[in-house]
Amino acid sequence: MSESRRILLVLHPNRPEVHDHALGVVKRLTAAGVSVAVISDEMKGTPLEGAPDLISADPADPTRDCELVCILGGDGSILRAAEVSRGSGVPLLGVNFGHVGFLAEVERDDLDVTVERIVSRNYTVEERMTLEVVAIHDGETVFESWALNEVTVEKASRERMIELTVEIDGRPLSTWGCDGVVMATPTGSTAYAFSAGGPVVWPDVEAMLLVPISAHALFARPVVVGPDSQLAVEVVARTQGSGVVWCDGRRAIDLPPGARIQVHRSPDPVRLARFAASPFTDRLVEKFDLSVHGWRGAARRANESGPETG
Predict the structure, then answer these.
(1) What is the mean pLDDT of residues 28-39?
(2) Which of the pair, 208 or 53, is modelled with greater confidence?
(3) Would you say residue 137 has pLDDT above 50?
């Protein structure tokens, strides 16, 4: 009896070109004996709605019996898929149809190779740390969530700054009048934390970042702490503005003055499927279109140390 195989397909909901490519992916995978499941509600109004080759995933457990989640979209779609798959151990494979696409493993032009790799199971799996977040107000937990990229505490009103006290491992670091604070993983160091002036941290480094946003203070530098540190941000009780906490820019709750947000490393990583063990440096150069003009690397060093002639 042949082995039954299944993947979950997640798509960007509003891009027709993604849906057109998805139909081809479904046909090729099913022809190779790999069933394709989708979340039916997300297919409404698309060419994939009611497609005969598709299986409807269990809404309560979409990744059940799946060996992989394949995403056609940008980083937003990959973050949405991470919500669906978290805790299941099923790895994510992103095909970039967005802009930068740091979380994606391949670009849209590589779809044929992607299908071949899925069929042959020719990929490795890499674990990325995530963050747990708890918001407390008046002694009660009002919000619990998690993040792959970052947890941000931001001002809710554009006109006002918000006063935040930052705490690391139970000790206060500083109080800032600011637009907010980003607490990020190494994976998220190239996302919002990067835009706020934080450092780029290689994804195999175990650490957490704390990056203030437009802080009015003498000391307002990004901080990198150990992976087991406990971070906390309190909305100062006397502050005139209210705040909001965001997880990966997708899940949020308003924060009144006096609220406390606690962040620490989560025991549940997100697993990413990888095709090539290319250096993270190459990904930075590609995604940010960095100039490496003039670099000759190993070839130059070999020539410089080669035998003398003449």
Answers:
(1) 94
(2) 208
(3) yes
The structure's pTM equals 0.89
Catalytic residue flag (residue 228):
no
Contact 192, 186 (CB under 8 A): no
pLDDT, tens digit, 9 for 90 and up, residues 248-276 = 999 999 999 999 999 999 999 999 999 97
Report d(CA 24, CA 37) in Å as an integer.
Answer: 14
Find all residues with CB under 8 Å of 146, minimum gap 6, and list them.
Answer: 86, 130, 131, 132, 133, 247, 266, 268
Beta strand segments in 138-267, E: 140-147, 150-155, 162-168, 171-178, 180-184, 208-213, 223-225, 231-235, 243-247, 251-255, 260-265
Please answer whether residues 207 and 180 qualify as being in contact, where contact means their C-beta atoms are separated by less than 8 angstroms.
Answer: no
Nearest residue to 128 via CA among 161, 156, 155, 102: 102
Residue whose tokens read 């109080």: 175
CA 185 to chain centre: 9
What does the pLDDT read at residue 40?
86
Options 53, 61, 65, 75, the catalytic residue: 75
CA atoms of 158 and 212, how far apart (whole Å): 16
Q: What is the rounded CA–CA span in Å between residue 261 and residue 253?
A: 11
Beta-sheet pairing, 231-235 with 162-168: antiparallel
Angstrom CA distances, 188 to 117, 201, 304, stand at: 27, 9, 39
> Rounded to an integer, what distance in angstroms lies between the CA atom of residue 43 and that of residue 126?
29
Q: Assign 309 a pLDDT band (cuts: 50, 70, 90).
A: very low
Query: Rg of the Cα trace of the chain?
Result: 22
Side-chain-side CA neighbours of residue 36 (13 Å): 25
Is residue 137 classed exposed, middle or buried when 0-12, 13-18 and 19+ CB atoms within 10 A define those classes? middle
SS3 24: helix
218 half-sphere exposure, CB direction, 13 A CA radius: 0
CA-CA distance, 127 to 227, in Å (whole number)? 14
